[in-house]
């Protein structure tokens, strides 16, 4: 079923939280939704890889990179893992790389921007804990909806 975040905001004004961070869209999937899984990392993407190597089961991976644009947390190889393992999409509060390749892939990625420098790989960070940016707390199990208008979060699925 298709959705529009604007319509969901209008219909569920009492439960929807709107992320105020202006994300850029990458990949061929312009809109995606699913239950939230979270990571909090800083310039390190080893946990991102480990998570995307597992079945996504239609979840959205929210990676809180602290808004850092120093190193890319997702590139084309990790985007391929997301597709292969059934992730609905990826939100990166930070940077990605390999934009031209990702833009040609059947994947939905929202990020702050791009940088060619790869991330560290020390596996430092936190997995599946509430994390916040853009005025929203992203809690594992809540639902995220992303489209051209932005990101919204709700404590439950909002449509069939």
From TrEMBL:
InterPro entries reported in the protein's UniProt record: RraA, RraA/RraA-like, RraA/RraA-like_sf
Domain of life the protein comes from: Bacteria
First-level EC class: lyase
CDD domains linked to this entry: RraA_family
The EC number(s) this enzyme carries: 4.1.1.112, 4.1.3.17
Catalytic activity: 4-hydroxy-4-methyl-2-oxoglutarate = 2 pyruvate; oxaloacetate + H(+) = pyruvate + CO2
Keywords (A to Z) from UniProt: Lyase, Metal-binding
Cofactors, names only: a divalent metal cation
Pfam families: RraA-like (PF03737)
Database matches in PANTHER family: 4-HYDROXY-4-METHYL-2-OXOGLUTARATE ALDOLASE 3-RELATED
Function comment: Catalyzes the aldol cleavage of 4-hydroxy-4-methyl-2-oxoglutarate (HMG) into 2 molecules of pyruvate. Also contains a secondary oxaloacetate (OAA) decarboxylase activity due to the common pyruvate enolate transition state formed following C-C bond cleavage in the retro-aldol and decarboxylation reactions.
Quaternary structure and interacting proteins, as annotated: Homotrimer.
Family: Belongs to the class II aldolase/RraA-like family.
Protein name stated in the entry: 4-hydroxy-4-methyl-2-oxoglutarate aldolase
